[in-house]
Amino acid sequence: MSPLVRGLDPVTGDVLEITADATITQIDRRPGPAGEELPYLAPGFIDLQVNGFAGIDVNGPEVTAERIAEITAALARIGVTTWVPTIVTASEEAIRHALRCVAEARASSPQLAHAIPLAHVEGPFLSDQDGPRGVHDAAQIRPIDPEEVARWQQAGPVGIVTLSPHTDDAPAQIARIVGLGVQVAIGHTHATGPQITAAVDAGASLSTHLGNGIFPQLPRHPNPLWTQLAENRLTCGLIADGHHLPAETLEVMLRAKGVDRAFLVSDATELAGKDPGRYQTAVGGTVELTADGRLAYVGTELLAGAASDVAAGLRFVLRSTSLSLPDALALVTRTPGRILGRDTTLRVGAPADLVTLTDDGTIQGVWQHGVEASPA
């Protein structure tokens, strides 16, 4: 069998030749290159927070299992071979409907089940205050309820729940949710430092899009950002679209957390890739997408999710921070893979989810379960 793909190891510069079907069956390594120009070779990218993509919303009454499959194919074309559908604050029935669609999509094929390992529910147990709440529906914000989370699990594969630990009972409720086998992320919060620490003591292990979903103005110190940056037990998601976090903020956050405790997310909405203009969305109502890709709730300074993707986030990190290509790749492969319980090492027996790319992060080729997906 001839090699499926050839490329350079981003760490060593060796030439890798990978033979595969759905999984990697052989890896040949040799020093190189000797007079040949090759792209770099890496595992497929992982995005743990996708609200929608390519004109399709994970949320709302129109979502179906077929539409979830369409998002999977569209993401593969840009290098994202694994993604986590993210369901935002809504009624319990609306959340359960979206989860059922995710479950049906996963059940339709082993490939989809691998590409969509779990679902992330962002809310409804969030801050009820303007600013930290973001554009989440204020009418649907409610107290942390592990019993509701258990009911969600009956509908679909809930693996991550984002909540705000600002109430006295938050640690006990977080412990119950973690006991259900669900990872708890802190986000959209006005919790104090001690409340965040108590949440981590109770089992919270992630931060959702750190630096966003918070008051626009904060005390110099203490504030929730410092607590989460200093807490080594929290692994933090970061939106690297150039709008949610300025380059210097992203640089400092990455220095504080290190690439083993940080990962990139897109927070992409259905408007990712759309033309500039005003749109009516199922989440957030009327939003405006500017020519430079900023997506905001009309009439406010609040961002309404993102209109970018995690592959673009990788490119932003490479051109705007001091990270090397191997370290930047860890933010979209190794660290989110660890959160999912997956080893993203290129090895025999691993899924043939692969990308080739240039040193600036431009995708050259994508293979999902050994099947080539033409880059968008």
UniProtKB/TrEMBL annotation:
Source domain of life is: Bacteria
Which InterPro entries did the record assign?
Amidohydro-rel, GlcNAc_6-P_deAcase, Metal-dep_hydrolase_composite, Metal_Hydrolase
The keyword Nucleotide-binding appears for this protein: no
Q: Name one GO molecular function term.
A: N-acetylglucosamine-6-phosphate deacetylase activity
Q: What is its EC number?
A: 3.5.1.25
Tell me which UniProt keywords the record has, alphabetically.
Carbohydrate metabolism, Hydrolase, Metal-binding
Which Pfam families did the record assign?
A: Amidohydro_1
Presence of keyword Metal-binding: yes
Q: Which family does it belong to?
A: Belongs to the metallo-dependent hydrolases superfamily. NagA family.
* Record-given protein name: N-acetylglucosamine-6-phosphate deacetylase
